[in-house]
From TrEMBL:
GO process annotations (BP): methylation
Domain (Polyketide synthase-like methyltransferase): residue spans on this chain: 155-396
Keywords noted in UniProt: Lipid metabolism, Methyltransferase, S-adenosyl-L-methionine, Transferase
Protein name per its UniProtKB record: Cyclopropane-fatty-acyl-phospholipid synthase
One Pfam family recorded for the sequence: CMAS
Parts forming coiled coils: none
Record family assignment: Belongs to the CFA/CMAS family.
Organism expressing this protein natively: Streptomyces rishiriensis
Chain positions covered by the region annotation Disordered: 116-137
MF GO annotations: cyclopropane-fatty-acyl-phospholipid synthase activity
Length: 429
């Protein structure tokens, strides 16, 4: 008898102590739950075993990446409905120990174990990264960057479009094109840094060379771009050569800690500081400060999280850490500003562009979904599923103000106190 979905739906509601807001379609073809809601498709019993033996976000991620779970219907709507049960339970939610003292909770777990059946769940999908050794050494940072960025330049071109900019765009309106918005972001960065002909720019985490090419071609800057990704560097060098800018742009595979040919007039760090780690952040800021000439500017473009009451639980068993940005860490914007100033920089402007990232991510997801078969061919089914979930969930997180993104403009102000900044702020707008 096809009754797995009704049993599963009832057991999940019993376990959560709350209504389950999506429909469930099980491996036996049965369905249960709100008929007009998106469906959580449980393709096999293995999905339940993954969830039961690793409860929470990581178990869900493993089942999703392996293809044991799927969403039927609008992904954003489903994630929005599930967010309150998965990611937003709150710090006052019951601990597992408290839950296990509840007879109804224990009964639901027994029912799910029976429904899941033997044996134990399989190993995690091959796309999952296992953390080993010390964090944020040169070796572990190279490995983490390679995991995320050496997926294949063709895959990223499919998702990002011709700009090959993998950071938040800057939108004039939601009706603008992705290409226009990314161009405007590159231009905004260059204007904030006051780049002029002959200015020397260090682009830390230069990606596929988009900012380096724009700064040299449109503003006459001389640029050193550094990345830890071999694939990015190869792509960026070809791009520089094709643009006829080899006399102005140098692309290196180099750790920011190993740059020794300063000073620079300006430094850009766009979407790179998230990889630095909280324990290394002050060192990162000090290194960049030392590489700037007196009066030089730093533009630090970085995703920020909201402060938590219990900071010790941040990132534990996280989908993002296991599948997307291994060893990456987000910090509250106040922490970032404090560390930059501790390093000797004067923070002159902080601009939140949170809504801009939500728009950017939705465009990337649309590109991925439109050419899904090609994306799978260029990477793997699991890798394409990782990117789809990560970008869609991130778009919702930006829209809900759970995370933000900020451009922090800082100056290495000389002892004279003359920062070189205009008297009226934001003359670049």
């Amino acid at each position: 008898m096809a009754d797995a979905a009704p049993r599963l739906h009832a057991l999940v509601e019993q376990l959560l102590g709350a209504p389950f807001p999506v429909r469930v379609r099980a491996w036996d073809g049965s369905q249960a739950g709100p008929p007009d809601a998106p469906a959580l498709v449980v393709r096999n019993r293995r999905a339940l075993r993954r969830l039961l033996f690793k409860p929470g976000e990581l178990g869900l991620a493993r089942a999703w990446v392996a293809g044991d779970l799927e969403i039927e219907g609008d992904l954003y709507t489903a994630l929005d409905l599930l967010a309150g049960l998965i990611w937003e339970r709150g710090e006052d939610a019951r601990t597992l120990g408290q839950a296990l003292r509840d007879p109804d909770f224990r009964s639901a777990v027994r029912g799910l174990l029976k429904l899941a059946g033997p044996p134990l769940p399989p190993a995690p999908p091959r796309e999952e990264v296992r953390r080993t050794g010390h964090l944020h050494t040169r070796r572990t940072d190279r490995r983490a960057i390679s995991h995320h960025y050496d997926v294949g330049n063709d895959f990223y071109a499919l998702v990002l479009g011709p700009s090959m900019v993998y950071s938040c765009a800057y939108w004039e309106s939601a009706d603008s094109t992705l290409e226009r918005a990314q161009h405007d972001k590159l231009e905004l960065v260059c204007r904030k840094l006051d780049l002029r002909p002959g200015a020397r720019l260090l682009d830390v985490g230069c990606g596929w060379g988009s900012l380096a090419v724009h700064a040299a071609r449109e503003h006459g800057a001389t640029v050193v771009g550094i990345t830890l990704s071999q694939e990015q560097a190869a792509f960026a060098r070809k791009r520089v050569a094709d643009a006829g800018l080899t006399d102005k742009v140098e692309i290196r595979v180099q750790d920011y800690r190993d740059v020794d040919d300063g000073p620079f007039d300006a430094i850009s760090s766009i979407g790179m500081a998230e990889h630095v780690g909280s324990a290394k952040y002050l060192e990162y800021a000090q290194v960049l400060c030392a590489l700037l000439r007196p009066g030089g500017r730093l533009l630090n473009h970085q995703i920020a999280r909201r402060p938590q009451r219990d900071e010790s639980t941040y990132g534990v068993d996280s989908f993002i850490d296991a599948y997307v940005f291994p060893d990456g860490e987000l910090a509250p914007v106040g922490t970032t500003v404090g560390q930059l100033e501790r390093a000797g920089l004067e923070v002159r402007d902080v601009e939140s562009i949170r809504e801009h990232y939500a728009l950017t991510l939705r465009r990337w997801v649309a590109r991925l979904e439109t050419d899904w078969d090609r994306a799978v061919q260029l990477s793997s089914p699991g890798r394409a599923r990782v990117w789809r979930l990560y970008m869609a969930a991130s778009a919702l997180a930006f829209e809900r103000n759970q995370i933000g993104v900020n451009q922090v403009l800082a100056v290495r102000t000389p002892e004279s106190g003359d920062s070189g900044m205009p008297l009226r702020a934001r003359t670049w707008n």
